[in-house]
Specification:
By secondary structure, the protein is an alpha/beta fold. The chain has 2 domains: about 1-175 and about 380-395, Glycogen Phosphorylase B (Rossmann fold), CATH 3.40.50.2000; about 190-380, Rossmann fold. Helix content is about 45%, strand content about 15%. Helix 4 (about 95-105) packs parallel to helix 6, helix 9 runs parallel beside helix 10 and helix 9 packs across helix 14 (about 345-360).
Length: about 400
């Protein structure tokens, strides 16, 4: 198939959405499909593997999404004339209705991938009533114009159904994946030495953005208790984000400056190596990570508003995972024997679970082995993209 893939990002920037898009187009291409990638920027190696078309965009707040949608619609119209695609696949973004209108007019199926509970995001971003109504109207138009919708979690699909009941028949839940060739079990000593870390010390690792819903401040609080019990345990934070200054202050106030390291954002290969240099992986999501449909946000098994990419990376690296007891996170890894579930916003419980695995390395190793097996069997991007292609093929 010829697939036009639209992503409103500069894919040369390190971010979770970058990893997702690049893994998807690589797999589509590897499976023999002709992919035309429309984006703001693209790494050279991927641009050589697919056909990359730059979409010019105004890089100003409030204009970026609209300008991308308008420019992408113009570019797509040219593609329809000169290299008519069999399908248009796009990551949800505001103004996505513009290129979808071109696809509908040309009778080309359009598949929209929705990666977050949009209602929850609007609330978190404190959208006013007028802006909210405008965005909801645009979102309904997107769901009306597309042929199919892929939601990365059940909460995402429920949000689609609430906003646009007529679209529910178009929606399918397909969770995110992981590149198991990048994220894989690595030698702990080699990884530690490569990154200047003491291979003898025990290490707890967190990877990703320092956003409020990621629970990083709870993790620092938990590490205070862990440090009081284990003089050989450190915390490694691989990432950066809005809470960086608050985290720095919390580390200093807790007297953990010599026990916590922060790397900033690093390439995926380095993320995998830093996980490899560690003993336990953590993802202490708080209630801000939950879907808008959740009434009792503290109940075990509550649905998350997005797919927890970092957990799949942890599993693929063969390390045990400790994460909040939500459906796609702690409930899942605990049921599969790959980690432990803890209550969110409970640093004491998080600390107890970390200590339990540090004190029982055989159990931790067994969980890590099970996690790697799970990643290969269920979450490798190759398998996930097969599901995307199955959805696309229904309309081509």
């Amino acid at each position: 198939m010829r697939i036009a893939y639209l992503a409103p990002f500069d894919l040369t920037q390190l971010a979770g959405h970058t990893s997702h898009v690049l893994a998807t187009v690589r797999q589509m291409s590897a499976k023999g499909h002709e992919v035309t990638l429309l984006a703001r920027g693209c790494p050279d190696d991927v641009a050589r593997a697919v056909r990359f078309v730059t979409v010019p965009t105004f890089d100003r707040p409030g204009l970026q999404s609209v300008s991308f949608g308008a420019a992408a619609a113009a570019v797509l119209a040219k593609e329809v004339v000169h290299r008519r695609p069999d399908a248009v696949y796009l990551r949800y973004f505001k103004s996505a209705s513009l290129p979808l209108f071109i696809a509908r007019a040309a009778r080309i199926p359009g598949v929209v991938e929705v990666n977050a509970d949009t209602t929850n995001e609007r609330r978190a971003n404190r959208r006013g009533k007028v802006a909210t109504r405008m965005e909801e109207t645009e979102e309904r138009a997107i769901y009306s114009l597309c042929s199919a919708i892929i939601g990365v979690t059940e909460a995402v699909v429920r949000n689609v159904a609430r906003l646009s009941p007529s679209a529910i028949g178009k929606a399918t839940v397909i969770e995110n994946g992981v590149d198991t060739s990048v994220y894989r079990p690595l030698d702990r000593t080699e990884c530690s030495l490569k990154h200047g870390l003491d291979p003898v010390r025990k290490r707890v690792v967190f990877t990703g953005g320092f956003s409020s819903w990621q629970g990083t401040l709870d993790l620092v609080a938990a590490m205070t208790a862990v440090a009081s019990k284990r003089a050989d345990a450190d915390l490694l934070l691989v990432g950066d984000g809005p809470l960086r200054m608050d985290i720095d202050s919390a580390i200093c106030a807790a007297g953990l400056s010599n026990r916590v390291s922060i790397t900033g954002y690093v390439p995926e290969s380095a993320v995998a190596e830093l996980i490899g240099a560690s003993d336990i992986c953590v993802a202490p999501y708080n209630t801000g990570a939950l879907g808008d449909t959740e009434k009792d946000k503290l109940r075990p098994g509550a649905l998350m508003r997005g797919s927890p990419l970092k957990i799949y990376g942890y599993l693929a690296c063969g390390r045990p995972v400790i994460t909040s007891h939500f459906h796609e996170a702690g409930e899942y890894v605990e049921a599969k024997g790959a980690g432990l579930a803890v209550r969110p916003e409970e640093p004491g419980e998080l600390a107890t679970s970390i200590l339990s695995l540090l004190n029982d390395p055989d159990r931790a190793r067994s969980m890590g082995d099970r996690g790697r097996q799970l990643a290969e069997e269920s979450h490798d991007w190759s398998r996930v993209v097969d599901k995307y292609l199955e959805v696309i093929s229904r309309f081509t």
